[in-house]
Amino acid sequence: MKRKILSLLLVTLMILSTLTFISCDKGGGAEEGTTTRVTVDVNPSVEFMVDEENKVISVTALNDDGSILIAGEAFIGKTTEEAVELVVSLCAETGYLVKGNVEADENNVKISVSGDTKYAENLYKSVEKKAADTLEKLDIEGAVKKVEALNTEALRALALSTSLYTEEEINAMNDEQLYDVIAAGRVETALLLTEEMRNAYYNAKEYEISFAESEAVAEIIESLGGLYTLTHTAYKTALELYGTAITELDNLRYELLVSPESAYQKALVELRDAKADLLKQRTYTASLDVNGEEYASATVTLQLSEENYDKALAAFEEMGKQANEALEALIATLREAETKLHELEETIFDDNIKETLQQKATDIEASVNAAKDSFFADFEAAHGEDIAAIESSLIAEKEALKASIEQGK
Question: Where does a domain end: 188, 218, 250?
């Protein structure tokens, strides 16, 4: 899907220019600090992208529990240590971390810090201490564990899925450059708190930018006139089919995965309710004396809550599977339309068209950049009510968890 019509020379220059820009203005080498990826996992799983001054520049939920946790919270601008302290504190307030009698592996705080530099090593030690100190301050018996950060291949996959760079461009980047690309994508989608909304955004943007590039090409062919009128007509027809497929796919993705009325989102609500009941019961059970009369019956109730949660999770995952299977047919249609465009470019673009496109490469790039610049505003305008509703529902869910845990103490 990610393609360039520009000449190989211009692509190479663009890559070198981009990488030079990314790698500059760090104010020092890796030992002095660089953009870094930090994750904190207590089941709510959260990612922080941190700049060279150890300030959080983006926060992203890596699962639904993480979305609930970060909603309405001010992480941006905090140090990594402050951000980790806030995550641990919120986990305690919402029942993900529990005081009292819990299984040995239930109160683990798992942390990763990307990079093999001394800076990364020292940063991990600092956030590990902050997490441990916070657990102690909250009187929670728990452990802080180091987990492996993403390797280079995994970083490339993440950068590819959250940017418009081609695979070739991504493969040319080192880890530090990949962190910058990921951070840019995370900052861009900061208002999109759920994975479903971010996926809808990334997919829509990729297709729309590709469409904008092809549309710019069509306009250049049209400007040639004369014998190229038929060429333009054939290309424009294929482009319209491509645009229709993009719109249909975007609409179906929204209806199946993002709309509050979708079976997927309704299953998610039921899953959250089951999780809230499980957290409440776990907190209550942990507060009891293991030798007391209530503990045995509370343990049975807790087991039932766990079984209900597992059923709700299985139902939710099945809804997601069905939605993705339904999307596959439209994705296939879109790929056919895209293939048709590529075939036309190979078969009906003569040397004159190709030379003109190279000469107009700057104009094409300007059209693409204009589409990139306006895309988030267009997406927000189209889905603003959904974005606001999602945040409100997540905040309400978090406040309900806090109230439930407080009542269960």
Answer: 188
